[in-house]
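Dear support,

I submitted the protein below through the web form. The confirmation email said the job was done, but the results page showed an empty box. After a refresh the structure appeared. I'm attaching both so you can tell me whether what I see now is the final result or a partial one.
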Amino acid sequence: MYIKSKEETHKDLPLQRVYFSKKFYNLYSDLLNLQTNPFVPNEIKDCINIIMQNITKNLRLLYETLAFYIPEEKAKFYRKIYSHFEPKKIDHEKDFQALRTTITEYFKVNKI
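What the results page shows now:
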C-alpha cells in the first residue's frame, strides 16, 4: 500500500515494477527448474530456452507498453493498453507445442 501510494505521488519516476500472477510465477519457476536440471536432455532444454527467451521478449514489450501509457495516464482502461500490446506479443502456443513434440519423441511416448 505504501509503495503504491508513493508511486502515485511521484508520477515523474519511470515505471519501477510489474506484478506477476501466481500462475505465471509457477510456470516460470517450473521452466527454470527444467532448464537448470542436469538430468533433462539437451533437446528438451533447447525448446525451454526458446520459450524462456520469448517470455523475456514479451515481458520487455509489456514493460515498454506500460511505461508509455501509465506515467502520463494516456489510457484510462487496460483494454487500450492490452490492444497496444496484444498484436506485438509473441504467441507461446507454437513454442509449447514444439516442447510437447520434443518430449514425446525423446521419451518415445507414442511408440509403445
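Response: this is the final, complete result; the empty box was a page-load delay. The chain has one domain: 20-111.
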